[in-house]
Amino acid sequence: DSGVTQTPKHLITATGQRVTLRCSPRSGDLSVYWYQQSLDQGLQFLIQYYNGEERAKGNILERFSAQQFPDLHSELNLSSLELGDSALYFCASTPGERPSYEQYFGPGTRLTVT
Amino acid sequence: AQSVAQPEDQVNVAEGNPLTVKCTYSVSGNPYLFWYVQYPNRGLQFLLKYITGDNLVKGSYGFEAEFNKSQTSFHLKKPSALVSDSALYFCAPLSGSWGKLQFGAGTQVVVTP
Question: I need a labelling partner for A14 at 20 to 30 A (CA). Which of A68, A98, A102, B79 fits?
Answer without folding.
Answer: A68
